[in-house]
Amino acid sequence: MIHDQQVASSFPQFKLGDSSIQFVNKFRYPGHIITQDQKDDDDIEHEIRNMFIQTNIVTRKFGKCS
């Protein structure tokens, strides 16, 4: 079985036109954060932050309702 680090260091340099494409540790792909280590911790933390933001908006809008 090949480990991620071995694969990343053995790949040839990718190019798009004259520009080299770099490997990254994480990126966003249709609403989700994809990480090199295949963990979803960053995505979960992002969704928790969004949940708190939405909760604060609802509380502010409807906090004075009976």
Structure write-up:
This protein is of the alpha+beta class and 66 residues long. It has a domain at 24-60. 44% of the residues lie in helices and 21% in strands. It has a two-stranded antiparallel ribbon. It is elongated and about 65 Å long. The protein starts with a helix and ends with a helix. 0% of the residues are buried.
Q: SS-based structural class?
A: alpha+beta
Percent of residues in beta strands? Answer: 15-25%
Order of helices and strands: HEEEEH
**How large, in whole angstroms, is the Cα Rg?**
20 Å
Q: Strand order, biggest sheet?
A: 1-2
Summarize the structure.
It contains two helices and four strands. It has 66 residues and is of the alpha+beta class. The relative contact order is 0.09.
What's the SSE blueprint?
Blueprint: H1 4-10, E1 14-16, E2 19-21, E3 26-29, E4 32-35, H2 41-62
Antiparallel strand pairs: 1-2, 3-4
Top keywords for this entry?
two-stranded antiparallel sheet, 44% helix, 66 residues, alpha+beta, elongated
